[in-house]
Specification:
Elements (H helix, E strand, L loop, with lengths): L3 E7 L2 E6 L4 E6 L3 E8 L1 E5 L4 E4 L4 E4 L4 E7 L6 E8 L1 H10 L14 E3 L3 H10 L11 H18 L4 H4 L10 H8 L6 H7 L4 H12 L3 H18 L5 H4 L8 H12 L4 H4 L1
Antiparallel strand pairs: 1-2, 2-9, 3-8, 4-7, 4-9, 5-6, 5-8, 7-10
Helix pairs in contact: 2-3, 6-7, 8-10
Length: 270
């Protein structure tokens, strides 16, 4: 039985803990997330990068970024993190209040990583007692804590305004570029369609036009070829690559691999 627990003191502030061997999830947030890693280890896999974080690390994960989060207990301690969500409404209120107008509209979102800093440490320390409360955290206190976090981020990293104060809504994007970059993420076709700014029907039509095949067939082939590369060239084990290649479990991956290549994935790594 997995023991994964998310404890919320408000929709914007949560403590997440996981005591089992492994926990993973595909993530696409509609808001920015300030994350403090308390114990365990987190691997964040994006299309073009892999990040590993441990106790004491703090990051800002931007909205509208697709990634796989893999959380592991480590050193005899469970994985544990605190997340403070910076919603669009909160950020709009903040920037209106202080009359700040950015911005570089083409600013490239990225994961911000912060070195250990007393302001970030104090912000985290002030949140921890809230998880022991039985009463609802008052709205005015939530507002104060969110504003405090925004001010801290702006103090530590002034350029972050170009991310936090950018409220543009992504529209229809280039389907070919997006799929070539993100095919390894194990998402439904409906989710892929939404992320490219399309209805499911339009997505399938545009996909057929661009790739001359169905999304399901193309995704399977791309993921299997990625896994084959990881096994043969990178000398990795099947159990280490199947999830990163977009398969839900090792059994399904092994069956699809043998059907496509004619031999088991274990035959490569032997």
């Amino acid at each position: 039985m997995q023991t994964h627990e998310s404890q919320y003191v408000s929709p914007e502030i949560k403590l997440s803990s996981f005591e089992e061997k492994f926990f993973s999830a595909e993530v696409f947030l509609e808001h920015h997330a300030l994350i403090w890693f308390i114990s365990g280890e987190a691997k964040i896999v994006q299309a073009d990068a892999v990040h590993i974080f441990g106790p004491g690390d703090t990051i800002l994960f931007p909205r509208n970024q697709l990634a796989t989060f893999m959380n592991y207990p480590k050193g005899g301690r469970p994985f544990k993190s605190v997340v403070l969500n910076l919603t669009i409404d909160r950020l709009k209120d903040f920037y209106i209040k202080y009359n700040f107008k950015p911005i570089q509209s083409n600013y490239q979102s990225r994961i911000f990583t912060f070195k250990k800093h007393p302001l970030l440490d104090s912000c985290l320390a002030s949140l921890m007692p809230y998880f022991e409360m039985r009463d609802v955290l008052p709205e005015n206190i939530i507002s104060i804590k969110v504003e405090e976090a925004i001010n801290i981020l702006r103090t530590i990293e002034p350029s972050i305004d170009n991310l936090l104060a950018n409220f543009e809504i992504p529209g229809k994007i280039n389907l070919t570029d997006f799929m070539e970059k993100n095919y390894m993420f194990n998402l439904t076709l409906d989710k892929f369609a939404r992320l490219t700014g399309r209805s499911l029907t339009t997505f399938k039509r545009d996909f057929k036009k661009a790739f001359k095949t169905t999304p399901q067939r193309w995704l399977t082939q791309k993921r299997l070829n990625l896994a084959h590369y990881q096994l043969k060239i990178r000398n990795r084990k099947p159990g280490d690559v199947y999830f990163e290649a977009g398969f839900e479990n090792l059994s399904h991956f092994s069956h699809a691999f043998k059907k496509y290549f004619g031999y088991n994935p274990t035959e490569i790594s032997q």
